[in-house]
Amino acid sequence: MNPDRIEQQRIAEGLEEPVEEAANLAEKFGLDPFPVSYWIIDYDDMNELIAYGGFQTRYPHWRWGMQYDRQQKQGQFMGGKAFEIVNNDNPAHAFLQESNDLADQKAVITHVEAHSDFFKNNEWFGLFANNPDAAAMLERHAETIQEYMEDPDIDREAVEAWIDHVLCLEDNIDQHRAFVPAEARGDGEDVEAEMVDEKLDELDLSDEVRDQVFDQEWLDAQEGDEEVRFPAEPETDVLAFLRNHGKAYDEDAEKAVEMTEWQRDVLEILRKEAYYFAPQKMTKVMNEGWAAYWESKMMTDEAFAADDEFLSYADHMAAVLGSPGLNPYKLGLQLWNYVENTTNRREVVEKLLRVEGVTWRNFEDTVDLDHVRDLLEPEPWLVDVVGHLDELDPDDSRVDAAALERAHDGEIDVESYPWKVLTYEGLCERHYSLVKPAFRGFLKRISQSELERIARYLFDTDRYDSVAAAVADIDRAAGWDRMREIRESHNDVTFLDEFLTQEFVDDNDYFTYEYTHTTRDYRVTSADYRDVKKKLMLRFTNFGKPTVAVEDGNYENRNELLLAHQYNGVILDIQQARQTLERVFQLWGRPVNLKTIVKEVDEHDVEVARRRDREPEPEEVGKLLRYDGEEFSIEDLPWDAVEGIAATDIDYDTKPDEWLA
């Protein structure tokens, strides 16, 4: 047997218990993941899988080699370390790098269980398929494209070039709708994109035949002044529109021709894959934060990392959370902690406001929150299960009676896994967030406005005669229950919109910065949560890419394509826009246009503003970018031509109505 395979088998056998117990602990915590299959692979295989997006087989293309090279150099020269990769599938497949130590492997396993729970239960992943067989789908796609490349009647380079054209637009789909085949999507109106003259030209009819078949009066009627526009409403699934209405540009004939079967097929394959991967891009902060949260709970709070593994695990977590730039792991973890703490705080305050004599006006004067926090501390036997095992009451709702009996019979290793004899309710109290050292001051930071808001919706019933009685009735599971509810329906944009508050910004030291013309460098500009929120959400709306929609497939009655950039205050990179239009031209076959809005600043205004130590006011101007296959041009547009694409108040609420109940 191959020595490498023997080593991988040895590692796999040593991980059987951690894999089994991590799944058991995840279930105890209230998670419901897909079953996970774990694979032990070497360093090169890990880099290859990361390049392939977590799957072993992808369609042939140079992009994978480029991503592999980037990943390998990151490990060699930048100190990056690949801990794991897991894909959204049922069962999920997770890959562990054989060179990682046991602490890293355990961290990865607990992290993966939480990811798999997110994949299974987040509604955005359900838009593609509730039970995806993604590995099989991607393998079929790879085989299909490989067959096209090997077909002697098809130029392999033409297939690769076609893929390049489509990939330039892979994020221009309607990620807020369920995937349906492109041909099943309607464009709002049953209108032909091509004009009659073009159809007649394609038939190559002589003038004599044209005159005999089509009288001049009828032809003149078809060439009326009325402009034919479609789709009826802007189409955000640009790939579907091009699949249904686009043409390929024939370089030799120098004209648009019908797409071949392989071209439409490849376009649809890449579109389908874009829909599959879209939920992962839409929920990066939520998903990584969710996995980091539960990994920490298992590895640290439940001591899944043994004493001799803890320092190695702490180094692992520090590397993950300490990555520079906008770190989705760190931001996500901070937001999930904030959701848990605010939910638990509201539950506590609601109970305390029902104590006789306590109102939102006298709350601070009549309630000793330090005493309340002491009362919230978990009972000693929940903190030290092993030392109080004989004292556990099997009739207590926080105790798993069946597991306790097995523990007494020696069938459960309570020293290693004390959580096994507790129920979900017991674990909620054991890990109650408001008594954790990192959050001990959270309860006392309740504001008067928040107290008033909570009191406004309380009914004058279920009064308590003491603070102790109120605390005894607090639901310790409220935080975790609320976290699972949010996990089901939100994406990154709605998550940030709802939970990024001024309190969160102040606690975690977030701020915005901008390039200033006066100082010619970047400066902190605001710590207001609205500014921070807007900037962060712009990073995640449409995966941080410009939102572009098809506005007209018959622009100015010339069969030209008109795209509209949904301007949100961030201007396009004109050079990148130009390169994109060149690609789109290959998929439309005729001239393509893009209207957008840019900010222009007069140099004189810049100098005046600099002398006055303030920023110049830029002017927003409409622009039309056009590429006809040979030349690229830019012209000004009147404001009324672009007014409809200027966002006055960006709508970040992208959850379907039925998820908002």
TrEMBL record:
Residues 14-347, 476-543 form the SpoVR protein-like N-terminal domain. It comes from the Archaea. InterPro entries: Spore_V_R, SpoVR-like_C, SpoVR_N. Coiled coil: none annotated. This is AbrB family transcriptional regulator. Residues 546-597 form the SpoVR-like C-terminal domain. It comes from Haloglomus irregulare.
